[in-house]
Amino acid sequence: MSYRKAFIVSNALMLASFIWAFVKDFRAEWRPYQAKYYQMSADVLEKKAAAEKDEKKAAALKVEARKMRSSPMEIKQIIANDLGRFDRCVTCHVGMDEYTNPSLKNDFKENPYKSHPKIDEALVKAHPFTKFGCTSCHSGQGLATQVEPAHGWVKHWEKPMLKGAHIQGSCVKCHGDFENLKGAEIAAQGKKLFSKTGCQGCHAINGWGGVVSVELGDIADKPFERIAGYNFKNIVMDGKELKNEHHHNEWNLQNWILAHLVNDPAKVTPNDPFAHYNAEPIPPSGMPDFTQELSRADADAITAYLSGMTKEEVIPHRYHVSAPPAKEPALSGAAHGKFVFAKYGCQGCHGLDAKIGRRRFNAAGEKQAEYDEKMPEKEQLAQMNLGEEPTLPKLVGTYTHDELIHKIEMGVPASDAKKWSPKGPMPMVYMPAWKGKISKQELADLSTWLRSIAVKDESGF
Amino acid sequence: MNKLTLIFAAALLGASYAAPVRAAEMTEKEKAMTNPYPNDFGPESLPDAVLKSYPANVQAGYKKLTSPKAGCAQCHSAARPLNSRFVEPEGGIDEAKQEAALNKMKKEQPELFKDGTVWQIETKVWSRYVKRMMSKPGCNLQKADGKSIYEFLAYDSIKRKTGANAASWAAHRKGLVDQLKAKNPKRYEELKEAKDL
């Protein structure tokens, strides 16, 4: 080919690519939404103009309608510098764009046309969109201008849009006083339930709580890659099994947290208790099964609370609202001891009010059949699942006051447990040493309460 | 493939199959030695001569204690109670009588109260411990068995660790503490700090 011909061909290719780019942009996903919004708004204005008896007002409305109809099609963007947000959500959600819709109100019912709900509330007034953007509360991918990517439902986007109650996790990120905040009631309830069920006995938050399992102060930053996709095949939510495809919409952090509350965690993370794939048997998740104690709404509330546990997001100091720690009730003696038991999450393992020990995989328990290595694995698994933590009223009467304090201070290693299956895994959950974490007075009152609930000694010696 | 290669491959396969099972399945003695107490370095049984000198009902308690299927040894090595520093004063199940016996011991044998790593003399100490072990989930001990084991431990603790046998017990117990210090200094320091030596 001569240089002349090559030059012509390359020019033709360049022209074609320009045309292709122009067509692609012309057919962008956001354009029909924006066009329809302008059209719908103009129709509303014209209807208002027709109904208006005052001619001047009617004329003004008609002008407004004309302007709306001829509004330029454009990418709209909120630049929230302080929070590092560049959000183009208002390109489609035009009703929430303060420039196109200064009142931020309209009568449209459907997304993406409707205005922001609860617009009259202090909530939105305190968080002007131009300062906060959209994704600082809702999450999602602010720069994207297509439906799936913009909502964060695409591969490698770690913070997809928060749905329903879970959005209240965003209040928790900045508001230390979220428990008393209007609009954050579900997250506040989540914190209460987290504490009531004793999650803090095993999971510390920002250093406060037990060390048995992962610290949750940054759980909202957990990368998806650390949530094994195949585990999602074990999750049933609202009667439906979630897809186990990596990067599927359902494969997100909120579902991962929820999964541990609306399913038996031992089924969500079954691991390898018979050492089929590992050098040693690995027990399933040691987390108790809370499905009988927590409703779906409770689980959503805890998920909302934990969705606010982030360390990764850069939130300037002046955006934080601090709050003093909650005041503890003025109690003493056994009554205070009962409060201390709940405060440190002892019920996470020993049950509400210490009434019954929760599951401890492969620990020996009272309900198990005798171990038989010839038993099929499925039956062995069921027996291992019947292992239990000590039921304290049966045990605490065998300690003196000082011995009990010492025991709580020193903790109990996992190796102290008698295994049901000698070949099975070491029971995973253990009692951490609480020395230095629980004050002397709290320990004394805790011991007093525990000994007060001890069952009567009928051993005869 | 020659014969030697085949044997080597078979040995490797066998080892890879056996290793996981072995790692998970530890004897109680091995398990105890992962977080040992000085007691665990001592013998797991009493000399026949000592045992024969005990009354029949006490001997029966010993048999139950050491029974690998139904006794204490189902959860931990029998060395742990047999070499323990615990001593329960005489007086049976009557705590007031035990208290009186304890006060008598304090007057007559004050040396037994000087080193807590050798003797920990407390009323009802064995009673509490046996009941505590019986209260653990999965403990198969029946009430009568527990009582029998308790009777042995209480009797044995007085006979073998005090009076004429105090000096030999002290030497034995100090030897166990020294063994722990030499073999597992970290654990020794841990127990010392926890006042649980």
Topology:
The complex is a heterodimer of chains A (461) and B (197).
Chain A: H1 3-26, H2 30-51, H3 55-69, E1 78-80, E2 85-87, H4 122-125, H5 129-132, H6 135-138, H7 147-150, H8 169-174, H9 185-196, E3 236-237, E4 240-241, H10 253-262, H11 265-268, H12 296-306, H13 333-343, H14 347-350, H15 377-384, H16 392-395, H17 401-410, H18 440-452
Antiparallel strand pairs in A: 1-2, 3-4
Helix pairs in contact in A: 2-3, 9-12, 10-12, 13-18, 17-18
Chain B: H1 3-24, H2 28-34, H3 48-52, H4 56-66, H5 79-82, E1 86-87, H6 95-108, E2 120-121, H7 125-135, H8 143-161, H9 166-183, H10 185-193
Parallel strand pairs in B: 1-2
Helix pairs in contact in B: 4-8, 7-8, 9-10
List keywords for this structure.
heterodimer; A: 461 residues; Cytochrome Bc1 Complex, Chain D, domain 2; two-stranded antiparallel sheet; 4 strands; elongated; B: mainly alpha; 10 helices
Would you give an account of this structure?
The complex is a heterodimer of chains A (461) and B (197). Chain A is mostly helical and 461 residues long. Chain A folds into 3 domains: 121 residues, no CATH class; 156 residues, Cytochrome Bc1 Complex, Chain D, domain 2 (Orthogonal Bundle), CATH 1.10.760; 120 residues, Cytochrome Bc1 Complex, Chain D, domain 2 (Orthogonal Bundle), CATH 1.10.760. Chain A is built from 18 helices and 4 strands. In chain A, the strands form 2 sheets. Chain A has a two-stranded antiparallel sheet. In chain A, β3 and β4 form a beta hairpin. In chain A, α2 packs antiparallel against α3 and α17 crosses α18. Chain A is elongated, with a radius of gyration of 30 Å. The termini of chain A are far apart. Chain B has 197 residues and is an all-alpha fold. Chain B has a domain of 106 residues. Helix content of chain B is 61%, strand content 2%. Chain B is built from 10 helices and 2 strands. In chain B, α7 packs antiparallel against α8. The longest helix of chain B is centred in the N-terminal third of the chain and has 22 residues. At the A-B interface, α17 of A face α1, α7 and α8 of B.
